[in-house]
Amino acid sequence: MPELPQAKNRRRWDIFCTVVDNFGDIGVTWRLARQLVADHGLEVRLWVDDLRAFERLCPEIDTHVAQQWQAGVEVRQWSTEWLATDAADVVIAAFACQLPSAYMDAMAARVKPPLWMNLDYLSAEDWVIGCHGLPSVKYKTVQKYFFFPGFQPGTGGLLRESGLLERRRQFQQSPEAQRTFLQGLGIDPAPNAQLISLFAYENAGLSSWLDVLAADSTPTHLLVPEGRILGDVERWLGVEGLIAGALHVRDGLTVQVLPFVRQDQYDHLLWCCDFNAVRGEDSFVRAQWAGRPMLWHIYQQEEDIHLDKLDAFLALYTKGLSEPASQAINGLWHAWNAGHDMSDHWRKACKHWPELQKHAEAWCLEQALQADLAAALVQFYVNWI
Ligand code: TRH
User: Fold this and answer.
1) Interval 73-97: pLDDT, tens
2) CA 371 to CA 159: how far, in whole Å?
3) How many angstroms is it from 238 CA to the middle of ligand 1?
4) Is the CB of residue 57 below 6 angstroms from any atom belonging to ligand 1?
5) How far is it, in rounded angstroms, from Cα 353 to Cα 256?
6) Is 126 an annotated catalytic residue?
7) Which 3-state string (H, E, C) describes 2-37?
8) Is the CB of 149 within 6 Å of ligand 1?
């Protein structure tokens, strides 16, 4: 009897993740692994070479064990001493990581070779559409394919677990739920304060932004998770050794340092804030699902190729904005990514606040019309078999 398409999806998937630096690699693969289990009923092993980075996003991780289950995902320590393991039906190498050679041989030894994909970095550039889904290298009998996330039809889409936007909307419509969540993190903003979250790499432009926020007649409560931007915050405050829990007030600006919270809590933080400064890849996508105006600190790459990615995204994102609002966003994002003075750009953006708020929600809904990345991967596999 032929297998039903649904049964065909119930296969074993292996996801390989090397933590290069920061949290994007594990952030994306952990999210994907959970979603493949929760939304698609798949059997997923997540191979991670650095469980300590993983533990920051998921405190339940036991960094000392070789095998454990978290949220239905089998988490495996990917150590240098590779033990013989059967290859799965679908193999995802995240961000071009190199699979163990013994595992590659195990893939080739299967009667039916697995579907082998490289999950690439997110980019809004047009060439992504042409390359998504194309064959890449071959190892013996096993063909590898490019799988590109993206913002436009013809790409692999963005990670978005089922029910995400409904949950977000309910939370944003409940002042009580937001208050309870914030209080749980020790955050008690003044009722008229705007909430801003700040997750960024080192940035020389920060002091000019904090100056203008402090001088503003609208009070701001700035929430800064522990991380790389803290040195710039310390310099601006004229203090040293900021740690989670620190709270400093300068005129209209309250700066509060937060612990690095678990991934789900970080989502809720983004949902609470009026404006989110995010970085990298995963927090950038999550800020879009928050439906609030945002600022992206893109991960810097050699020869400034990240600036092409920044411009490609801005070209898509600002479609539908009025010309002055579009210019304000372009100016603000470029200043931030160049570490330049932010003050004029921030003031200009503030002039278009209602439009930017509406646009953030509209962009989120437009993006949600596309199939999400996990569903697109499953569909790719179904088409492939
Ligand atoms: O940490 P990042 O700078 O990761 C980067 C990028 O992904 C970049 O593309 C990649 O090449 C480079 O790493 C190696 O930013 P990103 O992608 O936003 O990842 C942060 C993750 O941390 C994200 O999953 C959200 C999560 N997070 C928490 O779980 N709790 C927190 O408190 C915070 C601030 C973040």
Assistant:
1) 999 999 888 888 999 999 999 998 9
2) 9
3) 27
4) yes
5) 24
6) no
7) CCCHHHHHCCEEEEEECCCCCCHHHHHHHHHHHHHH
8) no
Number of domains in the chain: 2
pLDDT of residue 385: 87
CATH code, domain carrying 325:
3.40.50.2000
Active site residue 311: no
What does the radius of gyration of the chain's CA atoms come to, in whole angstroms?
Answer: 22
Q: Ligand 1: which of 120, 283, 313 to mutate, judged by most atoms within 8 Å of the beta carbon?
A: 283
The model's confidence at residue 10, banded by pLDDT at 50, 70 and 90, is low
Predicted local distance difference test score (pLDDT) of residue 5:
45
Instruction: Please give the C-alpha separations between residue 383 and each of 106, 115, 133, 322, in angstroms, as whole numbers.
Output: 23, 11, 11, 41
Q: Which of 20, 34, 281 to mutate to test the pocket of ligand 1 (most atoms within 8 A of CB)?
A: 281
Same domain, 140 and 246: no
**Would you tell me how many other CB atoms lie within 10 Å of the CB of residue 3?**
10
Average pLDDT (315-343) is 98
Residues 187 and 110 in one domain: no
The length of the chain is 385
> Ligand 1 within 6 A of 55 CB?
no
351-365 tens-digit pLDDT: 999 999 999 999 999
14, 232, 281, 282: the catalytic one is 281
Quick one: tokens of 7?
A: 């049964």
**How far is ligand 1, taken at its centre, from the CA of residue 19, in Å?**
11
pLDDT above 80 for 123: yes
Please tell me whether the overall predicted TM-score, pTM, comes out greater than 0.85 for this model. Answer: yes
- Whether 149 and 194 map to the same domain: the answer is no
